Amino acid sequence: MTALRSILFNLCNFIWSAAMHIVCLPLLFAPASWVWKAGYLWIDGTFFLLRLFCGLTYREIGLENLPGGPAIIAAKHQSTWETFYLSRRLNHPAFVLKQELLSVPLFGWFMRRIGMIAVDRSGKATALKKMVKDAAAAFAEGRQIIIFPEGTRVAPGQHKPYQPGIAALYGQLGVPVVPVALNSGLFWGRGAFFKKAGVIQVQYLPPIAPGLDRRAFMAELEQRLEPAAQKLLNGPK
Questions:
Q1: Domain count of the fold of the chain
Q2: Which of 41, 59, 153, 161 would be a feasible disulfide site paired with 190, CB 3.0-4.6 Å?
């Protein structure tokens, strides 16, 4: 049954996504707010298909820890799912993403139009400076920043070293960092064709206030985020 449901979801979602990207092409010349509205419609459609065919929903924990103003959202990254979810939950957020994604036909064009923060991972110090500058500009527009500290998708229960980008943003922008744990990879794994029924849990942890030195901040972020993510692997409580 899981295989049949996944086939139906993947087929319908491919058609839905392709149609949305093509129909919305004229919006590349429209205000960014129009692109966001179209993006929300696309995401809502994808989540509807996930519920309909796969029986996959989600549960939010700790929303009271999510500030209304400028903040950096430091989230675990296990699946494509959280990129949809965080785009929809927050107010026009700016993702920190690898520069190559902006070159993806259609999808990358829309990402560029709504002002995502692209990072040249070979650029080192220069790339970090540009990332901080772009993040400051996003804050000036009233947006929040989303970054995946490990820099890539990591399977549930596994861990990779946190990258310097999160420390650079925290140290230079003077805003709180909200760690976000989740267990999406249990249901929609990296590159996985099959999507499993269940309830994805997303947990917003208490913010880390600005002012810590780099070493203390990185240790605090990891000590909060990794155990919380590990606890979510057992599913809903």
A1: 1
A2: 153
Range of the domain at 178: 57-234
Residue 106 counted as domain residue: yes
Residue 181 lies in a domain: yes
Task: Tell me, yes or no, whether 200 lies in a domain.
Answer: yes
How many whole angstroms separate alpha carbon 175 and alpha carbon 136? Answer: 10
- The answer to whether position 4 is within a domain reads no
Distance, CA of 79 to chain centre: 9
Contact 36, 111 (CB under 8 A): no
C-alpha 26: how far from its chain's center? 26
Nearest CA to 202 out of 89, 116, 91 is that of 89
- pLDDT tens track, the chain, 237 positions: 789 999 999 999 999 999 999 999 999 999 999 999 999 999 999 999 999 999 999 999 999 999 988 999 999 999 999 999 999 999 899 999 988 888 898 999 999 999 999 988 776 788 889 999 999 999 999 999 999 999 999 999 999 999 999 999 999 999 999 999 999 999 998 888 999 999 999 999 999 999 999 999 999 999 999 999 999 997 554
Rounded Cα gap, residues 232 and 185, in angstroms: 11
Map tokens 């269940």 to a residue: 198
Rounded CA-CA distance 124/172 in Å is 16
